[in-house]
């Protein structure tokens, strides 16, 4: 097997697969190290409509649309939940393992070389990267780190990592009949049960995906606190004996500018900490960042990736962070508003569909809450559907 490639990608999640496919389709020789060892990623499996758009270039199969979310329930412990149904789905509930396998198959089919091994060490020799992994060492000019929230590679390269992180717990169980009518084509989000976060319940065709996510640094009640909140959340849903959840971190950017690349390397998706700070949504952002990084590699200038991420995800995440601070500081207020002003919940659908620039949320919220039409700045051709790196001379 060849040991020299144009690019080595560590990690075959959505970010790594998107980058590999974009590069390979342009004729680059790409090696992906898949360190998952068949372990599925713990995930809610909620693919926003903008996330589906981000996959449109891969002609997503019909099963990705099988479980649309048309209705949002917004709950608060001890109070009746608010419900709002939208005319079009805001998201799709998908089996995360199946999504990742489909992406991996696409990558293999496009000619990407996949080695099932973790990246164990990385070193720079001149302008070439040398990667230690099974069957290696492997060499390439470009190194893309798509190893997720606990990426070894980015830590070795000195990346600061997301300073804004959700700790999340998730478990899937068979859907109890009693919950079927409420959860059909719906998503339940509960505010106020977890400090700096929320709980969710999604029905994916008879499978109930349950989870909670809380911002680290908020009062989660010390060690075991999140676990106690998980038990309380499942009790409120009337579920007993749910079993132990799986846990993982969701890293989001903590400020407007974070470094996502350096000399010959770039971090993508969770490895760069690019999930959305409101919900911890990260699949769409991983795909977008993977494509942006690949396009910058093809242009021979990773500085373009830094700028493109700043102009898209990082710009929008500033507004998300502010919104998250508001929602999670006074969740009872947002729950009460959702009950009184369903138009506000419709904004959530607009957001998930990528029909609203997050920077427009403030004016839209004001208009939605006062009963005026929200004046949406709809941008169907958002960067989720067609991420393009800026041209080299754009600011020059
Ligand atoms: C509990 C939970 C629920 C979530 N729910 C949702 C949701 O409903 N919707 C949503 O949009 N987002 C959700 N997210 C966030 C989303 O899962 C991530 O943002 C997304 O998976 C990031 O994709 P990625 O490709 O960057 O990383 P990952 O999906 O984490 O993929 C990284 C891959 O790299 C591999 N790897 C790691 N280290 C190495 C190494 N050294 N060498 C080789 N391979 C390596 C890993 O095994 C993994 O396969 C959730 C996250 C959690 C934790």
From TrEMBL:
<dbReference type="InterPro" id="IPR050407">
    <property type="entry name" value="Geranylgeranyl_reductase"/>
</dbReference>
<dbReference type="InterPro" id="IPR036188">
    <property type="entry name" value="FAD/NAD-bd_sf"/>
</dbReference>
<protein>
    <recommendedName>
        <fullName>Geranylgeranyl reductase</fullName>
    </recommendedName>
</protein>
């Amino acid at each position: 097997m060849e040991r020299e490639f144009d690019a080595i990608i560590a990690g075959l999640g959505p970010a790594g697969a998107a980058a590999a496919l974009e590069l390979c389709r342009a004729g680059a020789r790409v090696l992906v190290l898949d360190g998952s060892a068949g372990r599925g990623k713990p995930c809610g499996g909620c693919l926003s409509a903008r996330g589906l758009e981000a996959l449109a270039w891969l002609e997503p199969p019909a099963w990705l649309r099988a479980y649309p979310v048309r209705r949002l329930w917004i709950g608060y412990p001890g109070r009746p939940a608010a419900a709002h149904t939208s005319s079009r789905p805001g998201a799709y509930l998908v089996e995360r393992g199946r999504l990742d396998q489909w992406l991996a198959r696409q990558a293999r089919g496009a000619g990407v070389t996949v080695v099932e091994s973790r990246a164990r060490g990385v070193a720079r020799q001149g302008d070439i990267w040398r990667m230690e992994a099974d069957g290696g060492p492997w060499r390439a000019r470009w190194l893309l780190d798509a190893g997720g929230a606990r990426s070894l590679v980015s830590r070795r390269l000195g990346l600061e990592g997301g300073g804004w992180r959700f700790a999340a717990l998730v478990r899937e169980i068979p859907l109890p009949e009693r919950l079927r009518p409420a959860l059909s084509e719906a998503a339940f989000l509960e505010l106020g049960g977890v400090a700096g976060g929320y709980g969710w319940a999604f029905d994916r065709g008879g499978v109930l995906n349950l989870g909670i996510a809380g911002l680290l640094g908020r009062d989660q009640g010390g060690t075991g606190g999140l676990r106690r909140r998980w038990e309380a959340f499942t009790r409120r849903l009337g579920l007993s004996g749910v079993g132990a959840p799986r846990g993982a971190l969701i890293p989001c950017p903590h400020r407007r500018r974070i470094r996502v690349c350096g000399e010959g390397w770039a971090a993508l998706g969770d490895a760069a900490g690019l999930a959305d700070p409101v919900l911890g949504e990260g699949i769409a952002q991983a795909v977008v960042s993977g494509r942006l990084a690949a396009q910058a590699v093809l242009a021979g200038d990773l500085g373009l990736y830094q700028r493109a991420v700043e102009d898209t995800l990082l710009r929008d995440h500033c507004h998300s962070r502010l919104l998250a601070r508001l929602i999670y500081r006074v969740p009872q207020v947002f729950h009460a508003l959702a009950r009184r002003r369903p138009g506000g919940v419709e904004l959530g659908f607009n957001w998930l569909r990528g029909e609203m620039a997050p920077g427009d949320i403030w004016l839209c919220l004001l208009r939605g809450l006062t009963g005026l039409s929200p004046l949406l700045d709809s941008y169907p051709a958002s960067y989720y559907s067609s991420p393009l790196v800026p041209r080299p001379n754009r600011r020059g």
